[in-house]
Amino acid sequence: MPGKVNAVICESLLMACAQVIGNDTAITICANLGAFELNTGMPLIAYNILQSITILANGSSILADRVISGFMVNERHLAELLDRNPILITALASERSVMTKAPLS
User: Fold this and answer.
1) β-bridge mates for residue 38, sequence order
2) 19 near 55, Cβ under 8 Å?
3) Which are the contacts of 59, defined by CB distance < 8 A and separation ≥ 6?
4) What is the distance between the alpha carbons of residues 73 and 70, in angstroms, rounded to a whole number?
């Protein structure tokens, strides 16, 4: 398909984020299992923290190098979208009465 963008890197980063969320849940459970100031879950906590740091660092680096660095900003299109954005009505709130704001949007 012409113009199709391959989203594999973004999808892989989403999987890495899901793994980090799972690691965080396991860390939370292990932190709550400590009894008598003896936390038997410390090895799992340390492993999951290091794994989370590693996969997020690698994923962020790949995303920056292969996806974000190739972005081209279309300033003309962004200006058009901004000019049509209904949030601009908020800026005009002090200029117009409540009854006349609806026709602006």
Assistant:
1) 35
2) yes
3) 12, 13, 16, 17
4) 10
Q: What SS3 state is found at 94?
A: coil
| Count of positions (residues) in the chain | 105
How many whole angstroms separate alpha carbon 86 and alpha carbon 105? Answer: 6
Label residue 56 left, alpha or beta by phi (over 0 means left) and psi (-120 to 50 means alpha): alpha
Model confidence at 11, pLDDT cuts 50, 70, 90, reads very high
Residue 45 to residue 92: CA distance in whole angstroms: 53
pTM over 0.85: no
56 or 4: which leads in pLDDT:
56
8-state DSSP, 38: B
Contact (Cβ atoms closer than 8 angstroms) between residue 13 and residue 66: no
Q: Determine the 3-state secondary structure of 35 from DSSP.
A: strand
How confident is the model over 47-92, as pLDDT tens digits?
Answer: 999 999 999 999 999 999 988 887 888 999 999 988 888 777 676 6
